[in-house]
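Researcher: Here's the sequence for the chain we discussed earlier.
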Amino acid sequence: MTDALQQETTDVLARLIRHNTVNPPGDERLAQEELAAHLQGAGLEVQLLGRTESRPNLIARLKAPPGAPVGPTLVLLSHVDTVLAHASEWKHDPWSGHVDEDGFLWGRGALDMKSQTAAEVVAAASLAREGWRPARGELVVIAVVDEEVGGAEGAIWLTDNHPEKARCDYLLNEGGGSVIPFEGGRAYGVSLAEKGVFRFKLVTEGIAGHASIPKMGVNSLLKMAPFLQRMADGQPSFDITDPPRALFAELGIPLDGDPVGALAALAERDPIMGMLVEPMLHVTLAPTQITASEKINVIPSRTEVKVDCRTPPGIGKDQALARIHEVLGGEGYGIEFTEMVVGNSSSAETPLMDALRSFVAVEDPEARVLPTMLPAFTDSRTFRDAFPEVVAYGFFPMKHMSLYEASPLIHSADERIDVRDLGVATRCYRHVAQTLLA
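Model: Thanks. This is the structure I predict for it:
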């Protein structure tokens, strides 16, 4: 059964990758229709719903028999759109689904995240073909479009327009699961939360003038320099939230009261882990783009720096602004927010976490499970906003490729996955469904 599941998931993923769903434009319909046929053939109820004909979202259900006790709804969520790929930069065609002699499947989406789509689809289809049905509740597979540019056609549209189709109690999505080498052992991270996004323009004003006489004007670009340095050198105060508390508790390191000491203790045990965890504890400010004069011989009267600001879950505009002023000081600049999304999270101690721990205990008995937080965001954020009671985690278990091997390949050239991990993930989603819906 294990080899058969791995092979089926490999085949489904290879076919998915051969559908070019780079977003924009996305154009995911053919891929979704292929997934729908696979699930319908196994006995699931399938719908394709979208704002436009070319970009439907897939919803497939496997319900408990009539008269069964009321139970939870488990959603296995993924997205089928991808970022761009330039074939000239790749060793193998990014839309080939090629499996090499070392057992790696190549292509755009092999990690982000058609692999998880394939594993979730095969998990549900294989259970259904075997005659398994939830003893209570229902299993739902949702594959959305448009995640890579924000989800307006996908998760946001679906939860806004068809909440009854998307509502759930438990949800598994992307954002965690790659094995993390830690203290000579192995840890699987379960993403409980995602940071918020409060991107802004930092603006300094000056007076235009001819660059041949620099002191004739007031150079707004030079006025920006100290604020760039403050972002390089400074750090806002800590804002400790529940997800990192759960992580540090699992590691046996006291966090509240002395975050600096806790980080130092973690970094001493594992410097890379310390580096990854540090942004979970506070607002981060990363200047990424700058605009000043449009001509080389004109002193700029206005300089703008775009800053990617990420905030711990639950922090809103006022608190984000306070942390920004804490780093930059209170004068000499203006702030114009361009994007404001509050981060959110789920509890660490739930039946879903228990199910994941029990899977890891069987699949990789020497490993541990660690609650983590994603510094970026996924569609889990949308589902938590739409259904505040949902427990949403990011978890795609990868036993054979570590986080440090897989992460650099995401959105990069030569994206690929060890096909053995496709079997691991499919077994995981089968286990979770059979555990939670028993």
